[in-house]
Amino acid sequence: MRPRDLRLLPLAAAVWCVALFCVFVPGSAWGSAAICGIAAVSVLGAFSWRRRHGGLHAGAGLLMVTLAAGAAVAMSTGFASPARDRIAEWDGRVVEVVAEVTSSASTGQDGRLWFEAVSIDVGPPGQARPLAAPVRIGIDPADGFDLGARIRVTGEAAATDAGERSALVVFGGEAEVVSPAAGVFGAAAALRLAFVERSLRLPDPGSGLLPGLAVGDTRAVTQELTDDMRTSGLSHLTAVSGANCAIVVGAVFWLTALCGGGRMLRVVLAAMALAGFVVLVTPEPSVIRASVMAGVAMLTVLLGRPTAGAGMLALCVVVVLLADPWLAATPGFALSVVASGALILLAPPLSRGMTRWMPAPVALAIAVPLAAQLACGPIIALFAEQQSLIGIAANLLAAPAAPVATVMGLLACLAAPIPPLADLLTASAWLPAAWIATTATTTAQLPIAQILLPAGLASALLVLAVGVSMASVLIGWRGSLPPRVARVAAVARQGAAGVLIVTLSLAGAHFALSGPLATSTAPDGWSIAACDVGQGDALLVRSAGQVALIDTGPEPGPLAECLASLGIQHVDLLVLSHFDLDHVGGTAAVFGKVDAVLHGPTAEPADERLLDDLVAGGARLTPASAGLRGRLGSAAWRVLWPIRDSAAFPPGNDASVVVDFDGGGVPRSLFLGDLAAEPQRMLLRTVRLGTYAVVKVAHHGSADQDPGLYEAVRATAAIFSAGAENDYGHPRDAALDMLTATGAHNLRTDTQGRILLGIRDEELQVWTER
């Protein structure tokens, strides 16, 4: 690109930096606005003087505009901050929120339905008062929580860290739709629902993925397929992104040209189609952002004006950040900008280079997602530890199918009023969706599908080097480059082989450590183990060859891996503290391997079905209540909670089974399930606890704890079972500080991985994975 084509990029970069500073440094917004404003006025004065006396510098005008835009984005942050600060004061309290949904919903790893919203009223239950601020809400899965719906949610609130787009996270306990989505939003929700139901009638693979490809509804995508898509570098296909928007624009542009439409008609129809697509897939901020940037990028490519697109993209960045400065700190925004820039600058030369081996239309179809993959890889490496080694190959295989699945799926969605036609189009879209799903599951199983590298700058540079090497080979840069740049590209190509060798070596080391040698790395003397199963509980107690398992985590895979690494093939006693997904979701890993089950009170038919499956595998069931006792090898156990026939607390967290172990080589240990502060206080009043060597902190270290209980038990070690960077913010700083104040040594699965404890020479010994 010529220098003048890049003149707006410094404007976007400067505004971005100002926005980042203002959102990450609370209270700095108005000071930043003042500094930028004064500087802009000074430049304007100098600009006027130089204009009168000649010698005007060409960049003075751009500098003034940049400073003025920086002041504007700082002021935008300043005006929004008071409401965010007020709503953050509800941190750690039960709150009622009346809000309007502003995004589509997706299922999180905790089984909750998560979506973004803007609060209307906030306050104690039954006493909410007007307050508007961005919030993120998680509820039990339910229908009707569509974009535009007004809802009422009551639950525990948690303030977010500086830089987070949502000012408050609400973990809903009770939720209702006050008024459903209406008008165009309601019609779009009905079309989406009909399409999802029609898609799910088709067989796997592909049925659950199709709604995500076409309309961005990922709720039907299984966790296994989600993991495979991430491993294979195809996760961008499971949600609405710039690629989807570019496909829609490109398809309409091409179809109009095929019918003889002029350039202006193509642009108008493509813009109208993009607007309709945004409404259909829910016009949440991320989709609007992606559609604007991808639409601009794709149109400039199709119109043969990619250099103009860079300036238009820079202006889009500035406008978006003025509207919402907190987007500057989100990885999604950075990925949208970089992917759109790749469509403008990298996709055309990639397409031209690949025409040496394939027809031009196929080359363009592959170049669009490939350019985005190469450009976004270094940014992903800054945040994610898993790096896909087969992402480029998987994208080359899956990319041709993505446009077909997207376009056919959209047509099927719009054809919902004509069921036969909708069925035909859905079936047609199923085939490319199945191809993509099969590509993901197949490539994810390859021995070197991914590698674990520490997230950060070093990994980003490594991924960048590989991407540059790949791009230079595909584009075929040789004589067209300046001599110095050509030499750099040649070195990069030569270095790619070395990079791949190092990568493969690291992958081999990773698989060796997670293979059959892993069992020998676990100390023989352990008697308590906290498995790293993500955001959930799965703890083992071992005495004289017998094993108890307390809860099973959110899914079977991590639990099965932990049991295998510790050499556990049979469970003598399974304790299911309660039936939330993060405590029973992995039970399938031990079906047919359990002798006896102690379980908390059931609430739903699904709970009973889970117990029936355990019985079918040969397990004996015992409802747990305070006073039950038993033996595990040489150790003794007893149930401390819940109280028999007590109706004070309904099934769930507050009726969690609390059990302790003692003797037989097991440190005296207390496992508190998910008890909140109130049942903790009642437990302390009704049971003579004494002191413990080990305590499993309740509810993953939430803020809802009773300090008196932990003061009474005076544990030497406190186990926090939580997932890395979980949405709940567990363990909370207040809980960590509280346990530290009692003299406990805090152990965390989210930062230390698997934790093993035992007794040696009458002292508590601890081993951690990290």
Unreliable stretches: 478-522
Helical stretch tally: 25
Report, as a whole number of angstroms, the end-to-end distance: 47 Å
**CATH class value of the domain at 523-768:** Alpha Beta
Instruction: Give the beta-strand count.
Output: 24
Side-by-side strand order of the widest sheet? 15-14-13-12-11-10-23-24
CATH topology of the domain at 523-768: Metallo-beta-lactamase, Chain A
* Second-tier CATH architecture of the domain at 523-768: 4-Layer Sandwich
The CATH homologous superfamily name of the domain at 523-768 equals Ribonuclease Z/Hydroxyacylglutathione hydrolase-like
Shape annotation: globular
Residue-averaged pLDDT:
81
Coarse structural class: alpha/beta
Spatial extent as radius of gyration: 29 Å
The largest β sheet comes out as:
8 strands, mixed
Strand content: 15-25%
